[in-house]
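Title: [Solved] Ribosomal RNA small subunit methyltransferase A 3D structure

Original question kept below for reference.
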Amino acid sequence: MTQEWLEGHRARKRFGQNFLHDHHWIERIARAIDPKPGDELIEIGPGQAALTREVIALAGRQTAVEIDRDLAAFLRTQFPDGSLELIEADALTLDWSTVLEGKRLRVFGNLPYNISSPLLFALLPAAHRIIDQHFMLQKEVVDRMIAAPGSKTYGRLSVMLQYRYVMHKLFDVPPGAFTPAPKVTSSIVRMVPKPEGKLLPVDWNVFSALVAAAFQQRRKTMRNAISDFLDEEGFSEAGVPSTARAETLDVEAFVRLANAAARRRQGA
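Solution (posted by the thread starter after getting help):
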């Protein structure tokens, strides 16, 4: 496949494709990732290989997950030396616990805006084997990921990801850096999983369900929002006022609530 074919390849809306083309931003993102030889790098959605080429130039090789069959075929012609190992699959349904099994991963990519939040949740179970993640996402999503309690953007995504990762927004990327240009600004976020030994103990299933219920109707008090999980005595046990609203509570408070709920279920 030729460069002429590539230029004729139209971004597919169903895959949320916006291709990075501005070399200034490609280099800046690659420097932020800081790939090195020996790293087990895996890119989600390499697209037309703009960032892929830069990372391979620095690290020597990488793996990539691509859902678009035409782009996967193109990518195979561009790296005949074996420097790119391609997994042709949907990153959203991939079993991330078995990808490059036994290896510690460094994950990066320009995530499709239409599946960014579900994909971040899909990666959570594999966090124990990930060194770091560098993603380009819609600025609004990154702002929600790093939001502090009390802010309008603080929500379920903030709590669930902040429990598991230390996150930093690095910089914004303008729409003009892409083809086609999206209608929104993008941001680069660095996500470093917290050591498992430093995670607050919690029943993950209860925690996840409770946090989702708490933010389902933000204007409700916690007493009303999570009444299926805890009664007034349970709130007292957790040390959280039942009159509080979800957006005012930090991650630790949600962990205490989930633990109180789990104990009550076990005792029921």
